[in-house]
Amino acid sequence: MSSVKTFHHTADKLLTAGLLQGGLQKRRSEEQLFTSYAYFIQEGIRKYSLQEEDAFDAYADTVLSAIEKITNGSFESRSSLKTYLYQIFHNKCVDLLRKKTTNKYSVHRTLSIKDSLFNISDAARSVIQRLADKSDWAALRQKLGELGENCRKALLLWADGHSDQEIAATIEYKTAAVAKTSRIRCLEKLRQLYKAR
Amino acid sequence: MEYIEGYFRKEMSAEEITKFEQLILEDPLFAEEVAFYLSARQAAQDEGVIEKKERFREIYLQHKPAAPVRAMGRWSWYIAAASVIAVVIFSWYLYQRSAGPGQLANRYVEQHWQTLGVSMSSREDSIQTGLRLYNEGKWQDALRQFEEIIQSGVAGSEVKKYAGIVALRLKDYDKALVYFTELSQYKLYANPGLFYQAVTLLERNRSGDPENAKQLLLQVVQNDLEEKETAREWLRKL
Fold it and tell me: What is the pLDDT of residues A91-142, one digit of tens each?
């Protein structure tokens, strides 16, 4: 029994270490994490009587939420990854049953921007929050799609917390400095496209 | 933008932070720029989440367990078990006889490209139309749709991949090879271009094709590219 526990502990460690790395390794670990407990989806269908699509959504959101917690350091490994994931999954299934998850993206977005503004002074924070609330998210995402392939990828990697060094390695920019300059140029280009809409 | 980034990356001194926050209050254009920086990052994060979810969906659809069967009586179980054993033996016999290059590729195509995942994303509606046409079996129309996007000059790697897949299903191998070769030249996170070229060559199976496919599969394994495990397995069988 203890060897099984040791095996799971080691597997969890390898997975979390992979998620903390950048580039291809992170992508593989994300997929591995998703596949490892994908049978939860069937459990969502059986135990919570969810439609397959809803059970998939609950599980995919669970994995994405766990990845976020692991990469920002708030997963403390007190429980196994499986237990941790199951807890989140269970809550999401219950939420779905109670139909509390409408418009989950906007909730997530507001929270994330609030996170970024956490340390800013009150007066400045309310100015930025008010301006950010006016953003046209659909247009912003559409304009992101109109950037070149490399630009779009660089911004997605940046927003996902990858360092400039990792971005350079993934998109084959020569150095981290080049990646940073290109990324900021892409941001400027996005701004121009967004303003000209 | 670099100045704004310095603030959010906590690279500023206490004095610089005060100045930065003061500027937000005093300069509406600067405040707008800061708000844009944060909104753009959030939009990119949302888009990334949607992409990841689509990737997960593809993985799930590939490994999805079969639908549960209805409860059966004891004799039905015996009959079913005997049938399964017979089918397994027969399939194994057929498999042993037909694990040639073309069959490997055919099986891959049937297993992976019966349907193509239609995304939930809001962007690139024309791609979604192409995918829907493909899934409805209208391969010629789907190819026309993808080629129109390519000709408009805004196509990315995704469209080249889909155009290649449809061309392959239509047995237009030369065209499929062109699209997959173009796909393999993109600098992507995970690029299946080389592997798909190998699939095309194996299915076409003209003189010299299996050898060229083997070289491509070797490159996939050596460079740790997308579909490495399948490539390794095929190299053992070829």
Answer: 888 888 876 544 444 434 444 566 666 677 888 888 888 888 888 888 888 8
Token duo for residue A183? 């990324």
Model ipTM over 0.95? no
Angle made by CA atoms B209, B214, B215, in degrees to the nearest 5: 100
CB contact under 8 A, B63 and A35: yes
- Radius of gyration over alpha carbons of chain A, in Å? 19
Q: Which residues of A touch B21 (CB under 8 A)?
A: 120-121, 123-124
Residue-wise pLDDT tens digits, B184-217: 887 766 789 999 999 999 999 888 999 999 999 9
- Could A184 and B34 be called an inter-chain contact, meaning their C-beta atoms sit closer than 8 Å? no
Domain count, chain B: 2
Is B106 in the same domain as B42?
Answer: no
* Single-letter code of the amino acid located at A69: K
Q: Do B127 and B211 fall into the same domain?
A: yes
Which chain B positions have a beta carbon within 8 Å of A145's beta carbon? 47, 123-124
Interface with B, mutate which of A116, A172, A197 (most B CBs under 10 A): A116
Which CATH code fits A2-97?
A: 1.10.1740
